[in-house]
């Protein structure tokens, strides 16, 4: 079996060669390949002709700032790329397309004159760019055509960070605390005349809607002209918790009752249902609430013989307070003075009931 294997391969190869030869011997196939050959030759001549003509093209060149001193901080951001449009012969432009153009390297020490900024004009940018171009290459345009480098040698100032945002949750959830940033202060660099009046900096204003879980998001810092904030973005956490309900039996306490009078309510307590963050469930009890009826409301009570119930105290994180009833019946009694009957003192109080 193994000895016949090379023979079978050779036989199969000869069969393939015979088929290819038969195909080329057909007249229609020969005409097709002749036509394709002329097309390819035309393309070669057209390409050679095009290489001798001048061609325009645009390239994106990276921008690099070199030799920046260690204690110097840039105030503005330089563009990452600059777009240059150039013109030259086809072979030169083909080389640029294949190899690419060198980055636009700006030597900081060469242009720093001891101030706080310098500007590179179009002619200066072209001078830097020409170092990586052929002498025959024409520079047609630069975008942007000028570059401003703003910087400071100041040590900077640490300033308080304030998060400026708005958030809302789904009905079954609640914000369980204030928005917080990953850091509480940032470094600000710029002229000392500006820094000395700066007390706090802010994030850009943002809005998060219908949250059902704690959100962590990256927020950029609000820009301040001629100053640089480091870092320029922070992680903000918006704490969100699910709500849970609790049922409590709360006494109704009369309020502002004059001396010598007694106000009794029926019933003396009512059921209160409320919603709260799940983490606060255990901390909420009957003592967390105060329900009352006000003696001053007797002149304008909602119905004869009834007083409206008011929620006088409740935790600020509690939502959707519902009472089993919004008013109670009452009895108002006036207490009489105490009389002395004999040497053995007997106190008698005869109340008047209203």
The CATH architecture of the largest domain:
Beta Complex
Number of strands: 26
Which regions contain 5 or more consecutive residues with pLDDT less than 50? Answer: 342-351
Q: Indicate the CATH class of the largest domain.
A: Mainly Beta
Helix content estimate: 10-25%
| Gyration radius, rounded | 44 Å
Biggest sheet character? 6 strands, mixed
Name the average pLDDT: 84
Question: What is the structural class?
Answer: alpha+beta
How far the N terminus sits from the C terminus, by CA atoms, comes to 123 Å
Overall, the morphology is: elongated
The total count of helices amounts to: 6
Structurally, the number of domains stands at 4
CATH topology of the largest domain: RNA Polymerase Alpha Subunit, Chain A, domain 2
Provide a descriptive summary of the structure in words.
The protein has 4 domains: 35 residues; 99 residues, RNA Polymerase Alpha Subunit, Chain A, domain 2, CATH 2.170.120; 82 residues, YbbR-like domain (RNA Polymerase Alpha Subunit, Chain A, domain 2), CATH 2.170.120.40; 92 residues, RNA Polymerase Alpha Subunit, Chain A, domain 2, CATH 2.170.120. The longest helix has 25 residues. The protein starts with a helix and ends with a strand. It is elongated and about 130 Å long. The chain has 6 helices and 26 strands. Strands 10, 18, 20, 21, 23 and 24 form a 6-stranded mixed sheet that branches. By secondary structure, it is α+β, with helices and mostly antiparallel strands. About 3% of the residues have low confidence.
Quick description:
The protein is an alpha+beta fold and 354 residues long. Helices cover 21% and strands 42% of the residues. The chain has four domains: 1-35; 54-152, RNA Polymerase Alpha Subunit, Chain A, domain 2, CATH 2.170.120.30; 157-238, YbbR-like domain (RNA Polymerase Alpha Subunit, Chain A, domain 2, Beta Complex); 243-334, RNA Polymerase Alpha Subunit, Chain A, domain 2 (Beta Complex), CATH 2.170.120.30.
